[in-house]
Amino acid sequence: MKRLRELKLSVNNRRRLDILRNPKEYYQVRLERERHSRKFKVKQNVYKVNVKTLPFRDHSEGVRQLLKRILNDVKDRMECRPDDYLRLNLRHPSLQSDIWFEFTQSQNLDENLVLNKVQAVQQSKKEFTLTDGAAELELFHVHYPQGRGGNQMKHLQGNKETFKSGKQSIVRILNQDTICLARAIVVARCHAQKPDCKDSKEYDTWKQK
User: Rounded to the nearest 5°, which phi and psi values hold at 8?
Assistant: First the structure.
């Protein structure tokens, strides 16, 4: 029995060393779709990454280094500049919904950000792991032109909180309970019932809701 454990340990140690030497053998990257918008002068592409079974624990240095290599590899394929914007979705069969990271500058999306969020999710989803070969990463890249003129996507470059508070098309709901969905439905329904004429009595009644 002791000999068997030693053999398993030896095999895992060799695999760990092999992953650090040849990381590309343990994940697969593919271009899912690509789209160009002439109107907004924006290029968007989506890459998917499948990670093979790994002989590491989720928050080990081996996983950290492999995740760093994956992110750098995909960014290189995307020809991603540091100030381009990326969004990451993380899928796993044990999760009811994806773990998603909102659009952030490429230079800020790194292995530490991903692993911190994974650790937070694992507090309630013990069966979720990055190392069982079932995890899938989906990265969205938005590339927009730089320089004077044109659509420079200022809503992404500026302060997000300032942008949200200044947009009349965004309704901010501040609550301390767990019925966000119900509140959002009520607000949406109220907006759909908005009268067209602002001088009508119906509009005054609507504003009091």
Answer: -60, -40
Q: Are residues 153 and 192 in the same domain?
A: no
Tokens read off for 68: 């760093």
Is 100 found in the same domain as 71? yes
Domain that holds residue 154: 13-158
> Is residue 108 domain-shared with residue 195, that is, in the same domain?
no
DSSP 3-state of 41: coil
Pairing of strands 27-37, 42-51: antiparallel
pLDDT bracket for residue 3 (50, 70, 90): very low
How far is residue 30's CA from residue 46's CA, in Å, rounded to a whole number? Answer: 9
Q: 156 pLDDT exceeds 60?
A: no
**What's the whole-model pTM score?**
0.62
Number of independent structural domains in the chain: 2
Provide the CA 66 distance to its chain's centre, in angstroms: 18
